Amino acid sequence: MSLYQGIFKRDMHIAFKQKAELVQPLMFLLMVVTLFPLGVSPSPDTLQRIGPGVIWIAAILSSLMAMERLFRDDFQDGSLEQYMLSGMALPAVSAVKVAAHWLVSFVPLLLLSPLLAMFLNLTVDMYIALVLTLLLGTPLLSLIGAIAVGLTVGLQKGGVLLALLLIPVFIPLLIFATSAVDSAALQLPYHAQLAIIAAMLLLAAALAPFAIAYSLKVSQN
Question: Which keywords describe this protein according to UniProt (predicted)?
């Protein structure tokens, strides 16, 4: 267990050491949310209607910017190969690295969500639904994204391919998440949407670490 804790601490240390790469996705998200109303309409009713979709689209696009570095440093310095040769369970290593990635990439988004909700004129009910969908949906982004990152980690410029692989996969999550917030805006129950997202998360949490480990082995060969 101490070995996995060491991997977690190392990833967190590297992430906070590379402050430019840490802040870049967050700044991109803020720019999208800030500029989108200027290009559509500053009307409070319009912002309230499109706000959840804007936040979720910005979250997905910003996650793609941060996703590429998930295994990049370990691949380049040989740490990934050492993990495979050390006898540690590669699915467990993958789960630890995904957890660190989620903490670094998405927890700041959750902390900023009150400001974003205020900026886009979301009601309290809409904000609660938005936070619940982000809590359930953003770990799913990290888990599914890590599979594609593992497949493209050996490529020189895998960012475009990564986006092409992941954006279609993230569309169902986007649909259910925005549907939940829209239901909250109409004072309708949205437990079904949350249940579907939670089911997707549980399935990904059970299977994704093994798929990530396999994709990393494929990239190393």
Answer: Cell inner membrane, Cell membrane, Cytochrome c-type biogenesis, Membrane, Transmembrane, Transmembrane helix, Transport
Q: Rounded CA gap, 220 and 29, in Å? A: 33
Residue-level pLDDT at 189: 92
Mean pLDDT to the nearest integer, 85-99? 85
Q: How far apart are CA 156 and CA 167, in angstroms?
A: 20
CB atoms within 10 A of CB 179: 18
- Please provide residue 172's backbone torsions phi and psi, each rounded to the nearest 5 degrees: -60, -40
The residues near 97 (Cβ < 8 Å, ≥ 6 apart) are 7, 8, 11, 70, 71, 74, 146
How much is the pTM? 0.86
Give me 219's structure tokens. 């990239």
Give the residue ranges of DSSP H helices in 153-190: 159-185
Per the listing, tokens 């700044």 go with: 27
* Most trustworthy range by pLDDT among 23-27, 58-62, 84-88: 58-62
Q: Which of 217, 213, 182, 218 is nearest to 91 (CA)?
A: 213
Distances (CA, A) of 177 to 34, 83, 144, 159, 182: 21, 36, 16, 25, 9
43 SS3 class:
coil
Spatial separation of the C-alpha atoms in residues 54 and 120, rounded to whole Å: 9
